[in-house]
Write a structure and sequence with these properties.
The protein is an alpha+beta fold. Helices cover 29% and strands 26% of the residues. It folds into two domains: 215 residues, FAD/NAD(P)-binding domain (3-Layer(bba) Sandwich), CATH 3.50.50.60; 177 residues, D-Amino Acid Oxidase, subunit A, domain 2 (D-Amino Acid Oxidase, Chain A, domain 2, 2-Layer Sandwich), CATH 3.30.9. Strand 17 and strand 18 form a beta hairpin.
Length: 415
């Protein structure tokens, strides 16, 4: 092994996905010296292989954490694309969440009414109204929930753009640097030393932003981080002429997961370490899930499965077939098209269903931003900004109370 070099920073960010890159960008904008360490390449994890959907309903009249993460992230994406001039293929396309059954329609009506009462931008459309703006939708649908602010962007381009802007602002972005040790910095009595390949990095603060790998990174600090890797998979058609104009989702899983969280499968019924909102339990499918869009290059991409599979990121053909069937119920022309490609990635699902953003208990100067589940791309920019501001100020804003890691991240010896 070659000689080990030593560097220092005020903040070491571990992870080069959208949340980590955003945190690095906003920390450097606040004048902090930042080094970002990424085990692979920027956007090589879930941030680079997702559908690229940005799910904003606007700030509403009384913004909660979800509104901050979604509406705030959309504003940051727009700033990157429109003010910084970086092409991330951003488009405020709007979204249609299609409705298949009367029971789904009842739930959609209740949700839309509640969200409208809170000032959010959302509307329940008849099937005819939905087909007027998305002509390829199936006439057999019962309607759709329309969200005009929801947007889309290329996930890899966007994540790379955040890293590029962070670097322009003064951050050091180091790829191919898996962190293998985090220990108290020797001699100083404060801060941390991180070992990453042939580099020792001393930092006053550490931000864990490693997505599905937050558990192994936390273990380096003898911490149990309640985040598990969940495999998501997607498929793509060959390039087509313009055919799908909104992002597309389905209400089927929304109904199933509502029952999961509050009905027969309550939190205490799930196995230890098993998060909510999965499509499979014990290897058996419990619901279908659907999301997709058409990329600028003409490919129509769809995905949906969320399955505990350890660290296996291999796509499963049977799941792709189920998802294709679901997509074809919404957009019948897809039934005639075989996938041209398929892929999978690992998403960071929090065991209790809530993000982890804030101070790590019992480890002075250690912070975390993770647990954004399947919506990390659309919520990561604002999550990174909020945690960057908290690190800079040394105080956590009230809006992050629901994401507080206290009493959730614990010493491994106590688990």
């Amino acid at each position: 092994m070659g000689a080990v070099s030593t560097a220092d920073a005020e903040v070491a960010v571990v992870g080069g996905g959208i949340a980590g890159a955003s945190a690095a960008l906003h920390l450097t904008a606040l004048g902090r010296r930042v080094v970002l360490l990424e085990r692979g390449d920027i956007a090589s994890g879930a941030s680079g292989v997702n559908a690229g959907m940005i799910d904003s309903l606007g700030w509403g009249s009384d913004p909660d954490l979800q509104a901050h993460l979604t509406a705030g992230s959309l504003e940051i994406f727009e700033r990157v694309a429109l003010d910084e001039g970086l092409d991330i293929e951003l488009r405020r396309s709007g979204s249609l969440q299609v409705i298949h059954t009367p029971e789904q329609h009842d739930l959609a009506r209740q949700r839309v009414a509640a969200l409208c009462a809170r000032g959010h931008a959302i509307e329940l459309l008849t099937a005819r109204e939905a087909r007027a703006i998305e002509p390829s939708l199936s006439p057999s649908l019962l309607g759709a929930v329309y969200s005009p602010l929801r947007s889309q962007a290329d996930p890899q381009r966007a994540t790379l753009a955040f890293a590029r802007l962070a670097e322009r602002s003064g951050a050091r972005i180091l790829t191919g640097r898996p962190v293998t040790a985090i220990e108290a910095a020797p001699g100083s009595g404060r801060g941390w030393r991180l070992r990453a390949g042939d580099l020792d990095l001393d930092a006053d603060a550490v931000l864990i932003a490693a997505g599905a790998w937050c558990g192994p990174v936390g273990a380096l600090l003898d911490l149990d981080v309640p985040i598990v890797p969940v495999r998501g998979q997607m498929w793509a058609t060959p390039p087509l002429p313009p055919s799908v104009f909104h992002t597309i989702a389905s209400f089927e899983s929304a109904l199933a997961w509502l029952r999961d969280r509050g009905g027969a499968l309550s939190t205490r019924d799930r196995r230890p370490g098993e998060p909510p909102d999965l499509t499979h339990r014990d290897g058996i499918r419990v619901t279908r899930h659907l999301y997709g869009r058409q990329r600028r290059n003409g490919e129509v991409v769809f995905g949906g499965d969320r399955e505990l599979a350890g660290w296996d990121a291999t796509p499963v053909a049977a799941g792709i077939d189920v998802n294709r069937g679901h997509a074809s119920e919404a957009l019948p022309f897809l039934a005639e098209l075989a996938p041209a490609s398929a892929w999978a990635g690992l998403m960071p699902f929090p065991v209790d269903g809530r993000p982890l953003i804030g101070r790590v208990p019992g480890r002075d100067g250690v912070w975390i931003v993770s647990g954004l589940a399947s919506s990390g791309f659309g919520r990561g920019p604002m999550a990174g900004k909020l945690v960057a501001e908290a690190i800079h100020a040394g105080a956590v804003p009230a809006v992050l109370a629901d994401a507080d890691p206290a009493h959730r991240i614990r010493d491994r010896a106590a688990v």
